[in-house]
């Protein structure tokens, strides 16, 4: 549960190479052939990951509630209800809309930032700090700052519009604007991680191709388009994939910023799960909705894997 | 224009050119000016919200609530910071965050390095199957676990305890995977030498493998710490007692209470952000490098 963004990175990871040939001499038998080393992790893993995953699946088939300890097996009733629940569909729609409008700038701006920083102008650490620093902030801090910027009367956004002689905008109160405001906050907050991924990739590219192209008379733009960007294709696939998965899982900033409002226009699917489970006390139904969502995440991951593999 | 300028590699290597990095727009004066301008404009955009928060936190509440585009409307004062530190739970929350993030990091790193070593060098039965399950678990979105985990904590009677906040966070299959890949790359000859000298597996791990893995272990520690410090949903769900809350959770619960007191909420936001900014400034190079070494970057 610690890092949210890198989760799911195993998907694009290459398959494990077959283990090297066994050593001629069997290693000493200390620590039970390694089994004891793995034991503490496996205990915690079983208790706090495998158990809840299985338990959640079981709960989704019951009418488990936060208030009653007795539960009844209800089969797929929760799932049937979820498919007919307009709130599930609308919060899924919000989730996909957010994913669409946040992922594209989060990939493109990160790429632009990395290319600019990699251009080698002085002051590297200043740029790195400026672009990455927001990623270090706890979600509450980010939303506190942006609640203030989006404040209707005194906030920077509307003060600026006022100074330019324009009408104030209901950043968080206008149904058609609120999700865009959330996306802007998210881009500012998290672009730094993608920026670092791109920067690390750029720094590990061999300079030889670029230099060869330069010797052949290719201009800077031409080298960018024909040499650098194609070499970044796999990184872009990885960044886009991680980003889509991260965006689909949006919850924290929206919950604190708008509580899903105005009028449910920013409520993502995970907030619906939270509302149903912890405000409505229906743990069974909440579990069913989260497993529907998990299934969608898996489908999206597989689809992305296919897509990028074809491009290769 | 820049094409001809860059086609011929400059004889005099410009100072700004770092280790083999190709200049995006070429080496001429105009391209450098454009690159510099773009970098500065983006950096300004990204720093502006910080600047606004800092300036807001340094004013009195009355000055903050008077209108005007200028961020500074009256004399600068540390009153908001004093108020936060004197009353309210912010110091207690900061302590909780430090304790939770520190312990999560310590336990995660200890448990994950051990497991990664066991998976990398172990010969026990079921090793490959267990490793496969661990890797598959990386796909599970943590949010999926919140409802059943909470149910589990109710059953254990652990709601509103440090253990409940910490324990579920120490399971990090991703970190085990990253560490295992690193250990796989360490040549075994070094360990075999120690084994021939009669060192136990534990000794080999502690005195040969761990010292060789310092960069990756510290990278993992930094990412786990940032993640734990910033984690919101789980601590939010499992704590009701304000005395147990971490900073992100505590600040979220009082956001509405602070309501109109923007100077104070900005001051508390910045206090909560400070430790991580310091961590980043100290470990900057290592963080950037670690993205590459963890295999997340690169191809």
Automatic annotation (TrEMBL), chain A:
Please give the chief subcellular localization of this protein.
membrane
Q: Tell me the compartments it is located in.
A: Cell membrane
Annotated ABC transmembrane type-1 domain residues: 92-304
Q: Is Transmembrane helix given among the entry's keywords?
A: yes
Mitochondrion is among the record's keywords: no
Give me the segments passing through the membrane.
34-54, 96-117, 129-149, 177-199, 288-308
What superkingdom heads the lineage?
A: Bacteria
CDD domains given for it? TM_PBP2 (cd06261)
Entry-linked SUPFAM superfamilies: MetI-like
Topology relative to the lipid bilayer, per the entry, is: Multi-pass membrane protein
What is the recorded name of this protein?
Sugar ABC transporter permease
UniProtKB/TrEMBL annotation, chain B:
Q: How does it sit in the membrane?
A: Multi-pass membrane protein
| Top-level taxon of origin | Bacteria
- The primary site where this protein sits is membrane
Which key words tag this protein in UniProt? Cell membrane, Membrane, Transmembrane, Transmembrane helix, Transport
Task: Please name the CDD domains in this protein's record.
Answer: TM_PBP2
As for subcellular location, the record says: Cell membrane
Using the record's annotation, list all stretches that form the ABC transmembrane type-1 domain.
94-283
Family statement drawn from the similarity comment of this UniProt entry: Belongs to the binding-protein-dependent transport system permease family.
Record's protein name:
Carbohydrate ABC transporter permease
């Amino acid at each position: 549960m610690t890092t949210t963004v890198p989760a799911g990175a195993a998907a694009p990871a290459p398959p494990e190479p077959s283990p090297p040939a066994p050593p001629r001499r069997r290693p000493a038998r200390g620590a039970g052939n390694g089994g004891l080393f793995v034991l503490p992790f496996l205990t915690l893993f079983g208790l706090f990951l495998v158990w809840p995953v299985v338990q959640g699946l079981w709960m989704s088939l019951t009418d488990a509630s936060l208030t009653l300890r007795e539960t009844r097996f209800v089969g797929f009733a929760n799932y049937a209800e979820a498919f007919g629940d307009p709130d599930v569909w609308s919060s899924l729609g919000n989730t996909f809309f957010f994913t669409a409008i946040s992922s594209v700038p989060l990939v493109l701006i990160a790429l632009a930032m990395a290319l600019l920083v990699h251009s080698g102008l002085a002051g590297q650490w200043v740029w790195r700090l400026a672009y990455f620093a927001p990623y270090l902030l706890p979600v509450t801090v980010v939303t506190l700052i942006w609640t203030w910027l989006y404040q209707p009367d005194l906030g920077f956004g509307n003060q600026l519009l006022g100074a330019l002689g324009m009408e104030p905008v209901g950043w968080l109160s206008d149904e058609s604007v609120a999700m865009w405001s959330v996306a802007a906050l998210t881009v500012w907050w998290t672009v730094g991680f993608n920026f670092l991924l791109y920067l690390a990739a750029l720094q590990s590219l061999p300079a030889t191709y670029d230099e060869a192209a330069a010797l052949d008379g290719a201009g800077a733009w031409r080298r960018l388009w024909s040499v650098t960007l194609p070499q970044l294709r796999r990184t872009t696939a990885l960044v886009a994939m991680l980003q889509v998965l991260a965006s689909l899982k949006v919850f924290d900033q929206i919950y604190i910023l708008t509580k899903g409002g105005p009028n449910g226009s920013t409520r993502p699917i995970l907030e619906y799960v939270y509302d149903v489970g912890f405000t409505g006390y229906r743990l069974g139904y909440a579990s069913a909705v989260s497993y529907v969502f998990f299934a969608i995440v898996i489908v999206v991951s597989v689809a992305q894997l296919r897509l990028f593999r074809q491009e290769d | 224009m820049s094409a001809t300028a860059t086609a011929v590699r400059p004889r005099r290597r410009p100072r700004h050119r770092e280790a083999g990095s190709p200049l995006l727009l070429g080496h001429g004066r105009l391209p450098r000016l454009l690159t510099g301008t773009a970098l500065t404009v983006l950096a300004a955009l990204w720093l502006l919200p910080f600047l606004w928060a800092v300036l807001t936190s340094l004013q009195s509440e009355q000055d903050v609530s008077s209108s005007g585009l200028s961020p500074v409307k009256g004399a600068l004062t540390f009153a908001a910071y004093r108020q936060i530190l004197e009353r309210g739970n912010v110091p207690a929350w900061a302590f909780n965050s430090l304790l939770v993030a520190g312990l999560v990091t310590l336990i995660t790193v200890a448990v994950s390095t051990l497991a990664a070593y066991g998976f990398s060098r172990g010969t026990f039965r079921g090793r490959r199957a267990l490793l496969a399950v661990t890797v598959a678990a990386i796909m599970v979105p943590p949010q999926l676990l919140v409802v059943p985990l909470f149910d589990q904590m109710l059953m254990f009677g652990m709601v509103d305890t440090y253990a409940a906040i910490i324990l579920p966070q120490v399971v990090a299959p991703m970190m085990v995977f990253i560490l295992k890949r690193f250990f796989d790359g360490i040549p075994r000859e070094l360990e075999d030498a120690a084994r021939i000298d009669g060192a136990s597996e534990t000794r080999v791990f502690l005195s040969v493998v761990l010292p060789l893995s310092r960069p990756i272990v510290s990278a993992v520690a930094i990412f786990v710490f940032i993640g734990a410090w910033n984690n919101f949903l789980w601590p939010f769900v499992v704590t009701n007692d304000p005395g147990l809350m971490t900073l992100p959770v505590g600040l979220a619960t009082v956001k509405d209470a602070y309501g109109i007191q923007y100077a104070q909420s900005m001051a508390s936001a910045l206090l909560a952000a400070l430790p991580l900014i310091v961590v980043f400034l100290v470990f900057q190079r290592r963080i950037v490098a670690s993205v590459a070494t963890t295999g997340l970057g690169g191809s």
